Amino acid sequence: MAKLAIFDLDGTLVDSRRDLADAGNAARDAIGLPPLPVEAVVAMIGDGAQVLIERLTPDCNASRRALAMQAFRRDYATRLTGHTRPYDGVPGMLSCLRASGWRLAVATNKPSEFARPICDDLHLPYDDLRGGEGTKKPDPAMLLDLMRACGATASDTWMIGDHRTDLLAAQRAGVRSVHCAWGFGQRDGLPATASAAHPREIAGILDG
After folding, report:
1. Contact of 146 with 108, CB cutoff 8 Å
2. Which of 88, 128, 90 lies closest to 112, judged by CA?
3. What residues are labeled active site?
4. Calpha distance 196→206 (Å, rounded)
5. Angle, CA 106 vertex, CA 14 and CA 95 arms, to 5°
6. Which of 58, 81, 107, 117: disulfide with 142, CB 3.0–4.6 Å?
7. pLDDT at 48 over 90
8. What is the rounded (10 degree) CA torsion for 170, 123, 180, 115?
9. 3 state SS of 58
């Protein structure tokens, strides 16, 4: 059976705060709302683009939110890796895992039309990827689908992420989890099999 490491993207593999915040403010600007500080937008990230837009436009009707979503997607497509970079240690960690026989996958609530070019442009290796077009984390469907595609059982699989949705999805899929304390997600006190303060710790946890 394959050993499978499933990674979240934003806040786990890459620091995408500035680009997401700029696109979020472009969405607000498109419907006449003033910009928000970067950290205010960052606190809204993690549950998919639709939820992000709802949080960015709390008092708006459906038609204004649709305009904001169009603006967000249009703007974000132009800046996917404008400021977004892998966290220090991530490329080496992924190379180390691959060299020791792990299959690598990405499970993100970000649409795959954005996630794939980010991973490709930043030269982050992955064997398979699922984005947030359909069922999103914390639903375990994305993880279960990747396990089937990669030929891995629950006992051979880890979910690595910084947000509550990652830990809940792992729990519901019956796989082990690592909470990435370096990210910008909210753990909300949820349990994890292990916690890592830096990407260099991941290989030791998974192979330990």
Report:
1. no
2. 128
3. 8
4. 11
5. 70
6. 107
7. no
8. -50
9. coil
Tokens 């038609």 belong to residue? 63
- For the cut 80, the answer to whether the pLDDT of residue 135 exceeds it is yes
Q: How far is CA 168 from CA 44, 66, 138, 182, in A?
A: 18, 29, 5, 18
Residue 107 tokens read as: 């499970």
Cα–Cα distance measured from residue 206 to residue 117, given in angstroms and rounded to the nearest whole number: 27
Dist CA 154 CA 183 (whole Å): 25
Domains of the chain in start order, with CATH, are: 3-15+84-207 (3.40.50.1000), 17-76 (1.10.150.240)
For the entire predicted model, the pTM comes to 0.95
SS3 at position 171: helix
What pLDDT, on the 0 to 100 scale, is given for residue 70? 97
- Look up residue 8 and give its DSSP letter: -
In Å, how far are 58, 86, 136 from 75, measured between CA atoms? 20, 21, 23
**How many angstroms separate the CA atoms of 139 and 135, rounded?**
7
60: which 2 tokens? Answer: 């708006």
Residue 131 buriedness (CB in 10 A; 0-12 / 13-18 / 19+): buried
